[in-house]
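Subject: Protein record for review, amino acid sequence with backbone structure tokens
Why sent: The fold of this protein is of interest and is recorded here as tokens.
Notation: Tokens come from a learned vocabulary of local backbone shapes, not from coordinates.
Attached in line: The record itself begins immediately under this heading.
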Amino acid sequence: MVLGVVIPVYCGSQRIGAVVTALRSALEAQRLQGRLVLVEDGSDAASRATVTSLWETLHGVTAILLARNVGQQRALHIGMQYLPDCDVIVTMDDDGSHPPEVLGQMLSQLHQGADVCYAIPNARSIAPWRKTGAWLRDVLFRTCLGLPPGIRVSAYRMMRQEVAQAIHPEADGFLYLSAAIMQHRPKVTNLHYAAAPEPASRYTPTKLIRLYIALLAHYTFVRNVLPGHRAPCHSEATVLPGRGMLWEP
């Protein structure tokens, strides 16, 4: 079984190298075969240079350099399209907060019948507005998208390839991966792990409010009463294809 891992990189020159090294070491320790797609999300020259360097020096790394910033969700979806021959797809952040050591446990959840496994950190101290935002998101997903009771979503997820292939952006290009996944009513489970210190978040209360309005507009009955969507915007990309696996036995 081959894992396809997608990591969007935004201004990540100082951290993505360590994240990739940890991922490669964890896959080798767990005897898991995997390929990696790094999607540089149109941020800065240093980030692009670092991603390109990782592609040049490591097998199993595909580098996608986007001409402009499209956001985390769209960047992830773009990267997923370059892993069609992988059995499962994993999405991770570029800040090192998602421990690759639990990938084997997540894979076990899929072996036991789950379609999607979300890795959830144990309780940690985060800003009250972020706790409220996560609670509101989960309420929305439960009431409008069929998220099972007691299940939470996160950016650290593993899904079967057929689930990944069923995900598509909305007509105007908007995409929120977990909402798009829930539209297909997959069997979802959680894996809890020991949390690392909370990294700085790029979200602000204003950004979160805009996000939840967009979720309501695109994934609930509200979409039926809104005017027609604008045409989607596309981003040109330079694609540097990978070679082989992240590690070889």
Q: What stands out?
A: Residues 128-145 form the longest helix (18 residues).
